[in-house]
Amino acid sequence: MENSYESNKYDKMILVITFKNAPEEIEIIADDRGVDDLMLYLKGIKEDKDHMHLVIDSEIDKYPIPQERKDQITIIEHIRLQFASCNDW
User: Fold this and answer.
1) What is the pLDDT along the chain (89 residues), one digit of tens a residue?
2) Sign of the four-CA dihedral 58, 13, 2, 40
3) What phi and psi values does residue 14 have, to the nearest 5 degrees?
4) How far is residue 77's CA from residue 8's CA, in Å, rounded to a whole number?
5) Hey, is 70 helix, strand or coil?
6) Are the beta carbons of 54 and 37 closer than 8 angstroms?
7) CA 85: distance to chain centroid?
8) Contacts of 22 (CB under 8 A, 6+ apart)
9) DSSP string computed for 10-41
10) For residue 63, what is the DSSP state?
11) 3-state secondary structure of 5
12) Would you state the torsion angle of the CA atoms of residues 71, 27, 77, 42, taken in this order, to the nearest 10 degrees?
């Protein structure tokens, strides 16, 4: 029997977008599996006191944007998550 995750590219979703009229704002859209992945990424960064790059078509999905919203939305293709202590900032 085929694994349902392998059979459906969008079984897990992490999408990061910004709006062209509000570029200072980002929106993270994730389903159940995407939230679980984000929590694992953050836990790993915290435990290792390190950083991680999230990139499109790897950790970030290029989930289809409805045609009527394409001119309003920019998909973020790269994010760096960085651990830092309060004293570092």
Assistant:
1) 333 334 345 566 899 999 999 999 999 999 999 999 999 999 999 999 999 999 988 888 877 788 898 899 999 999 999 999 888 77
2) positive
3) -130, 115
4) 21
5) coil
6) no
7) 23
8) none
9) TSS-EEEEEETTEEEEEEEEE-HHHHHHHHHH
10) P
11) helix
12) -170
Q: Which amino acid is at 28?
A: I
Q: Which residues on neighbouring strands pair with residue 27, listed in sequence order? A: 17
Residue with tokens 């984000």: 38
pLDDT for res 10: 53
Q: Supply the Cα-derived Rg of the chain in whole angstroms.
A: 15
Q: Counting every residue, how long is the chain?
A: 89
Q: What is the value of pTM for the model shown?
A: 0.74
- Identify the burial level of 76 via C-beta atoms within 10 angstroms of its C-beta, where 0-12 means exposed, 13-18 middle and 19 or more buried: middle
Contact 54, 28 (CB under 8 A): no
